[in-house]
Structure formats: structure tokens, C-alpha cells
UniProtKB/TrEMBL annotation:
The keyword Signal applies. PANTHER family: PROTEIN WNT-9B, WNT RELATED. GO terms for molecular function: cytokine activity; frizzled binding. GO terms for biological process: animal organ development; canonical Wnt signaling pathway; cell fate commitment; neuron differentiation. Transmembrane segments: none annotated. This is Protein Wnt. Belongs to the Wnt family. Ligand for members of the frizzled family of seven transmembrane receptors. GO terms for cellular component: extracellular space. The keyword Disulfide bond applies. SMART domains: WNT1 (SM00097). It is found in: Secreted, Extracellular space, Extracellular matrix. Its main location: secreted.
Length: 346
């Protein structure tokens, strides 16, 4: 039987259809018992042991100083971005019910898999260019002038190494006809592709009087918030898929029934079943009771028609600020009453 998911798993790019989820890949959404010690020496080894990794992954972690810190950074990126993108949704990426939710092939699980793989891809590429990983360095794309790049203190984000290392770190297994595994792997690859789509070439000119006698170029990833926004759009336009058998190869494939004349795109997030409402406490979430909302925009949907409570809160803020010569700003402190709206409990 397929191992249950307790958290999102990560898989390498181009894994479909030769990799399968094992349920033992890095678990990147629940905060682990991470140490605050720097990732060096015994502290690095301790951090590797504290993480929920396979035996093989722990060996790789121990041999790769900086990897434990990078995995921890991917936790932070994915969790913060998920919570930001769903701050006004009924499901707000809370940790409540995460294990139960991940057992179902719903849109929320699709987003979790995509944002987690995107965060690890992004964090690894940044770790290479910042020198936090010993076995990788700047991007080595053709045409990038490393000599000038190092001279001017510029180092490109190494997405090529990042995706290659992911494949090695996360391993591969045969998918066979497991539709759920194919769905999960597809969504994981959507996250990696979202990071790739934000990779840009940036150039800087050097020369006398601003001329472009010498041009230094390097690869640079977009801020992760841009990736999160793209994945939220993919979530909003996610495609419900079915399983079909390819008559030519006999292999099981995914198809989107609502795209009659167009095959499923590799950038579509996909799901297999409808999501729960998330309105009331359940094994999937804590519900929306007590959640803050905006009276004119989100309260109706977020509160699921139960209505909302109104309260007055006194807030302190800076006001009447003036600039004093030359560089000093003086402000007064003001208090203001604000109406705060919270959803009524179920």
C-alpha cells in the first residue's frame, strides 16, 4: 500500500513518470526541532539528524555542509508564502489537519506540493550563489563571464545545479499506474517550473564614463513572492484530471476533461477530488470561526454565511510627522479607534 503522507513530499524535475512518492521525503511544512547553531562542524551534523529524512538523505546531508541550513530556509519560504497567499481564503495554510489533508488529492494539496518543491529549488540555487553550499558555486550557463562576475562581486543563482541536486537528493522510483503518484509528481514539477520561469539574465555595463565597453551578465531568480503569486494563480485555475490509458504505449496518463481540444499543460496544477469547505472545524482545518475579515470584501465568503462580530480596537500610530534639518524626522503619537471584524463560530 502507498505510504500515507504526513506532510508534502518533494521530487525532482522531469520525474514523471519514473519517480514515485515514498512518504519519506523531506517534510518541509511542519517546523522541525531545528537548532539555532550555525551549520558547521558538529552543529551541521546535529541538524541533519534532527530532520525527517531517509537514511540515504541523511548521509547526503552530512556530506554537504550548508544543506541543513538550506532545507530549513526552504521551510521558512514555503510556509510564509503559503500563509500569505491564502490569508483571505477559508483554508489559510494552517498547520491544523495537515496530515489528513495531504492524504487527499485536492487543490490545496496540489499547492502545498508545488510551493514546497519551488521553495527548495529556490533555496538551493540561492545557497550556491551565496557560497553557503561547498559543492556548488555560481551559475555556469554558457556566455556568462565568470572572471568579470567575480571581479565585480556578482554571482548568478545556480538553478542548473539546484535541480540536478534535487534529483539526486530525492531519489526515484517507478510510478507504474498509480494515478495519485502521477498527480503529486506533476504538481511538484509545476512548482519547479514556476521557479524556472522567473530566472532572468541581468547585465551590468562597465567602462569609461558609463560606456558599455565591458558587459557582465549573470542569472538571477525572481523574488520568491513572485513564484508564490504565480502558484496561487495556478491554484485558482487548477484542472480536475482523470486517468486514461494510452492505446499506443499502454501507460496510464492524466487528462483534463474540461480541455476538450487541448492536452493538459505541464504548468497546470491538477487535482482529483473536490475540497472540503473548511468552514467548520474538522480533521482538515480549524474552521473559520474567529478569523479576521474585511467587511466589504471577504467577510461574506470567509464566514460562510454565519455572520461576523464587530469590535472596536484602539491602535497606536505615528502621526503629524515633520522633517527637521537635515535628516531627522519628528512624529507625534496618535491613537485611533478601528472596527475589527471576526467570523462567528460555527
Amino acid at each position: 500500500p502507498r505510504p500515507p503522507h504526513s506532510l508534502p513530499s518533494l521530487l525532482p524535475v522531469n520525474a514523471l513518470p519514473t519517480s514515485a512518492l515514498t512518504g519519506r521525503e523531506p517534510l518541509v511544512f511542519l517546523p522541525g526541532p531545528f537548532s539555532n547553531e550555525p551549520s558547521s562542524g558538529k552543529a551541521h551534523l546535529k541538524q541533519c539528524e534532527q530532520m525527517t529524512l531517509t537514511r540515504r538523505q541523511k548521509r547526503l546531508c552530512r556530506r554537504e555542509p550548508g544543506l541543513a541550513e538550506t532545507l530549513r530556509e526552504s521551510v521558512r519560504l514555503s510556509l510564509l508564502e503559503c500563509r500569505y497567499q491564502f490569508r483571505s481564503e477559508r483554508w489559510n495554510c494552517s498547520l491544523d489537519g495537515r496530515g489528513s489533508l495531504l492524504k487527499r488529492a485536492i487543490k490545496e494539496t496540489a499547492f502545498l506540493l508545488a510551493v514546497s518543491s519551488a521553495a527548495l529549488t529556490h533555496a538551493l540555487a540561492k545557497a550556491c550563489s551565496s557560497g553557503r553550499m561547498e559543492r556548488c558555486t555560481c551559475d555556469d550557463s554558457p556566455g556568462i563571464q565568470h572572471r568579470e562576475a567575480w571581479q565585480w562581486g556578482i554571482c548568478g543563482d545556480n538553478l542548473k545545479y539546484s535541480t540536478k541536486f534535487l534529483k539526486k537528493f530525492l531519489g526515484q522510483k517507478r510510478v507504474s499506474k498509480d494515478m495519485r503518484a502521477q498527480v503529486d509528481i506533476h504538481n511538484i514539477n509545476v512548482g519547479i517550473k514556476a521557479v524556472k520561469s522567473g530566472l532572468k539574465t541581468t547585465c551590468k555595463c562597465h567602462g569609461v564614463s558609463g560606456s558599455c565597453a565591458v558587459r557582465t551578465c549573470w542569472k538571477q531568480l525572481s523574488p520568491f513572492h513572485d513564484t508564490g503569486r504565480l502558484l496561487k494563480f495556478r491554484y485558482d485555475t487548477a484542472v480536475r484530471v482523470l486517468s486514461v490509458t494510452n492505446a499506443a504505449t499502454g501507460e496510464t496518463e492524466l487528462t483534463g476533461p474540461r480541455r476538450q481540444s487541448q492536452s493538459l499543460r505541464s504548468t497546470d496544477l491538477v487535482f482529483m477530488e473536490d475540497s472540503p469547505s473548511f468552514c467548520r472545524p474538522s480533521r482538515y482545518s480549524a474552521g473559520t470561526g474567529g478569523r479576521s475579515c474585511a467587511k466589504d470584501t471577504t467577510c461574506q465568503s470567509l464566514c460562510c454565511g454565519r455572520g461576523y462580530n464587530t469590535a472596536m480596537h484602539l491602535t497606536t500610530m505615528s502621526c503629524h510627522c515633520q522633517v527637521r534639518w537635515c535628516c531627522h524626522v519628528e512624529c507625534q503619537t496618535c491613537q485611533r479607534e478601528e472596527e475589527v471584524y471576526t467570523c462567528k463560530a460555527a
